[in-house]
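Aim 2 progress. For 2-acyl-glycerophospho-ethanolamine acyltransferase, the working sequence is reproduced below.
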Amino acid sequence: MERKSLKVFTKISFYMALATIIVIPFSLYLSSTTSNNNLGSILRPFALIAFYSSLVGIPLSIISMFSKENLAKRIFALIVNLTPISLIFYALIMGFTDEFFRIVH
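Predicted structure tokens for this construct:
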């Protein structure tokens, strides 16, 4: 593929990153502030779709690094698409270190 035709991957991964950065914090905020779960149950599928689209957006962002699109746009898409999965790995590593390196009294 030519480098000019890779702009499509940049555009798709950028829109996935925008959806991730808008939907996931908004759904987390609403689920933490509302007492009834009606609104949270409506937003949960959208948050899952945004999370899974960010997983799909990671390879697209890596491919888009070879395009001639704006560098800031490509880096933004890569960082935002990597954020949800990196937070999950961070939580798993912190849980592991807390469980196995805790000082026993």
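The mean pLDDT is 85. This observation will guide construct design in the next reporting period.
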